[in-house]
């Protein structure tokens, strides 16, 4: 069930419940929630999350540990895989049985916040129940939907460039600083090709991530706030992006689409950069960690800056913990106390490590890096170092990707490839991208 169907399903169900009962669904559900509280102050919290068996096991261990520390609080856990999680949650929510604590994804939090499913957690931040002082402000703000703090971020990720230091050294190049520019980027790619015969950039642009970054550098947004059309008006923005990369392809400094297809048929660790056949690759902050078994030298650097030094990078929330608005006040308070413990405690941070992404709390990251908790390796520590650099050049987090993003990514890759092979000019491709994407986004109009 996609986001649009979930939103429609929840809206229609809530309307139906309200009409039939003559009162809001939240009030009725809170009465049900109170029945799970005993007279002796004991509270049972239902909690749902997605993940693999390893995540299920250590999360249950953390729930047990929390109950041992707080005997009045017990948990009813509902772990599932990603597949089916959202359909199950939509059904539970529509039936008035949304779990008290919900692991929430950035792509769905707006839907559940707008349908009044999620409690406003600002009151718990204001009274100190949930301490977000160790979390980047932009990350905290990402959970604020229409004035409601609908989720507390647990983790984060961000765009990056993975680099092979050996290939750069072979070309007589040093690792660039964080303030490098797109001109530096182009020159490095070409120098690698000229000096070594190897590829400067191994990339296929199968999604709009780096183009989104480029658009933000131009002071624009990729999509309108209502997700019904592209947000930038000047196609020259995309034309320049395409021309930059077409120039690299023509110089042999970037792989062709066919070369990428051949390489990407291999596992991540067997691709061009870890195999010392290319210098740079765009990706996420996990790329070096993913290939460490075959090449533990791959490093991370922020994408190139523009001449103005615009803070176009962003910290993407990995996942949140949200609390059900239908839970009683007592259960919301108990849930908020648990969320604070999960976010900030060394016990929870040590068990979780980087499984849910880079921990949002700087206190937890520092403890993991120092080795006082958990057992992370050198590449994960380097990933934390990268986070610190990336955070210093990051701006506001953009809204979640719109419905239809997978189609948009395919269109983007297609028009880029046509430019690379000379089947379209960059001007024709930019116009085609706008026409096709706006048709896709028009489906999001009410």
Describe the structure.
With 446 residues, the protein is of the alpha+beta class. It folds into two domains: 43-155 and 319-390, Periplasmic binding protein-like II (D-Maltodextrin-Binding Protein, domain 2), CATH 3.40.190.10; 159-314 and 397-444, Periplasmic binding protein-like II (D-Maltodextrin-Binding Protein, domain 2, 3-Layer(aba) Sandwich). 48% of the residues lie in helices and 12% in strands. The strands form four sheets. It has a five-stranded mixed sheet with strand order 2-1-3-13-6. Helix 1 runs parallel beside helix 5 and helix 18 (405-420) runs antiparallel to helix 19. The longest helix has 19 residues, at 3-21. The radius of gyration is 24 Å and the shape is globular. It comes from Blautia pseudococcoides.
Number of H- or I-type helical stretches: 19
CATH architecture of the largest domain: 3-Layer(aba) Sandwich
**Proportion in helices:** 40-55%
CATH superfamily of the largest domain: Periplasmic binding protein-like II
Lateral strand order in the biggest sheet: 2-1-3-13-6
Morphology call: globular
| CATH fold field value of the largest domain | D-Maltodextrin-Binding Protein, domain 2
The quaternary organization reads as single chain
- How many structural domains? 2
- Round the Cα radius of gyration to an integer and report it: 24 Å
Q: Show unreliable segments.
A: 14-28
| Largest sheet features | 5 strands, mixed
- What is the C-level CATH assignment of the largest domain? Alpha Beta
Tell me the total number of β-strands: 14
- Mean pLDDT, rounded to whole units? 91
- Report the structural category: alpha+beta
Strand percentage lies at 5-15%
Keywords: Signal
Signal peptide: 1-21
InterPro entries: Bact_solute-bd_prot1 (IPR050490), SBP (IPR006059)
Organism: Blautia pseudococcoides
């Amino acid at each position: 069930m996609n986001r649009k169907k979930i939103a429609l399903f929840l809206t229609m169900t809530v309307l139906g419940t309200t009409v039939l009962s003559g009162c809001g669904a939240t009030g009725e559900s809170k009465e049900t929630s109170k029945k799970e509280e005993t007279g002796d102050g004991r509270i049972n919290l239902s909690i749902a999350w997605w993940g693999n068996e390893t995540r299920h096991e250590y999360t249950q261990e953390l729930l047990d540990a929390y109950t041992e520390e707080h005997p009045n609080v017990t948990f009813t856990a509902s772990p599932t895989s990603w597949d089916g999680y959202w359909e199950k949650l939509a059904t539970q929510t529509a039936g008035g049985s949304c779990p008290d604590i919900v692991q929430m994804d950035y792509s769905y939090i707006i839907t559940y916040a707008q349908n009044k499913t999620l409690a406003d957690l600002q009151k718990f931040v204001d009274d100190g129940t949930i301490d977000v002082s160790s979390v980047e402000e932009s990350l905290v703000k990402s959970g604020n939907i229409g004035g409601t703090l609908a989720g507390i971020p647990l983790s984060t990720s961000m765009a990056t460039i993975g680099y092979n230091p050996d290939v750069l050294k072979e070309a007589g190049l040093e690792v660039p600083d964080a303030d490098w520019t797109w001109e530096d980027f182009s020159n490095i790619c070409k120098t690698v090709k000229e000096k070594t015969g190897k590829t400067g950039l191994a990339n296929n642009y199968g999604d709009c991530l780096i183009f989104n970054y480029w658009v933000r550098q131009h002071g624009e947004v990729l999509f309108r706030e209502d997700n019904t059309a592209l947000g930038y008006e000047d196609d020259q923005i995309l034309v320049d992006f395409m021309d930059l990369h077409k120039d690299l392809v023509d110089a042999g400094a970037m792989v062709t689409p066919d070369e990428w297809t051949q390489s990407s048929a291999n596992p991540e660790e067997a691709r061009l950069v870890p195999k010392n056949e290319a210098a740079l690759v765009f990706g996420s902050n996990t790329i070096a960690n993913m290939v460490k078994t075959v090449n533990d030298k791959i490093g991370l650097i922020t994408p190139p800056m523009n001449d103005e030094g615009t803070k176009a990078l962003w910290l993407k929330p990995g996942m949140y913990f949200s609390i059900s608005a239908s839970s009683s006040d007592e259960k919301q308070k108990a849930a908020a106390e648990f969320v604070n413990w999960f976010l900030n405690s060394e016990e929870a941070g040590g068990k979780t490590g980087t499984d849910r992404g880079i921990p949002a709390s700087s206190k937890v990251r520092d403890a993991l890096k120092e080795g006082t908790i958990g057992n992370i390796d050198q590449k994960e520590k380097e990933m934390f170092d990268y986070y610190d650099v990336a955070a210093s050049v990051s701006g506001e987090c953009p809204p979640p990707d719109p419905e239809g993003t997978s189609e948009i990514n395919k269109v983007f890759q297609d028009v880029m490839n046509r430019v690379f092979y000379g089947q379209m000019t960059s001007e024709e491709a930019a116009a085609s991208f706008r026409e096709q994407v706006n048709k896709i986004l028009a489906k999001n109009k009410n």
